[in-house]
Specification:
about 375 residues; mainly beta; Immunoglobulin-like; 8-stranded mixed sheet; 5-stranded mixed sheet; Ig-like domain-containing protein; Ig_halo
Length: about 375
Amino acid sequence: MRRRTVLAGVAGLSGLTGLAGCALFPVDGWNPEDARTTRSTEAFAPPEASTPYRDSDPADNVYRARAVRVENRTRRERYVTVAVDEGDRMVALRNATVPAGATVSHPDLVAKRGSYTLTVDTEAGATAVREFVVSEGVGDLTLVLGDDGIATRQTARCRPGCPPLSTGGFVAEVLRPETTVRRRGVGRLLVRNVGTETRRVRVRLWSDRERLLDYRYRVPVGLRLVLPIVAVGGRYEVAVSVDDRTLRRPWHVPAESAVEFEVGTGVSAVCDAVSGWSTRTYGPFRLGRLVNEDDVDHHLFVSVHHRGSVALDDHYVLEAGETVDVGFETPALSDVELVARTGDGEDLVATWTHCPPPGELVLVVDEDGRLRAYTDCQKAVDAS
């Protein structure tokens, strides 16, 4: 029987966390910063700014008080002062010397939900004022000291609401939180503010001309929204708007397990971007190996298309248990389609609109004669 799979089995493209340098998303509750040598700075808090800062009503506090980390990427140690204010009131203050290449952690600063003003100063004269958001789904804030200034990083996971960042909108029943539970195969949409001021962002999603999402957010400088909104594979249309500028692109799930946008003065879709606490590096599209895990021979027809042109069109005969090195590479970074078909009629189609898969792609005929695909640094899952 001829079966057509729109790549439900591209495990390397399904949001799995594989080996270092290959994962698209960090493991929940794990932060590489925790593995570094850090210095606690509780002793630097003055008596008038005891921490963590909490509300008298426990219902207005998050379960875990949020921290601020200071990462020094310069070649000299820096003496850094961090102050957190709620309106005109200082609620936390920390001072620390941060060695070159090191990270200092200021734990348990604020537990009360809300938006705070964070001010950071160094003895070298660098200063920055940023918004520090404390809420469920919003993580700790990291300050990055560089030779060209101070940057901030904070991640918020929205489903799709995440006050005080979300300002309302429409969400279809199929995308509601109880439907898009955290699991493998959920497509994620990411929006990161790389500008110099808070941006108001509108995110929309359609499937087969049906409106699924129309939500608005207020995104502070350095903050990245993560929306795990798609749990069903298929072709979607996504639009991200800032002011009067809108970027609308197709989105193929699960081949493209994540689509990422950067906003500032405008909006752009990106590949080489910070994902969680590590950097995903995308190179050209690479098809590395063909693997036959079945105990019988298989004919395999493989083609790669880029913007209507055929970049690869080959026929292979794979003996039982055989692995064939293909070593195919195309410089294309977007709009790539892979089509594979066995002589028994099993076929697989995968499309990457925004970015090629990270790492080298491997095509597998499994022990049941089904086609699967994954990157060489991640494990495949069942294509059914």
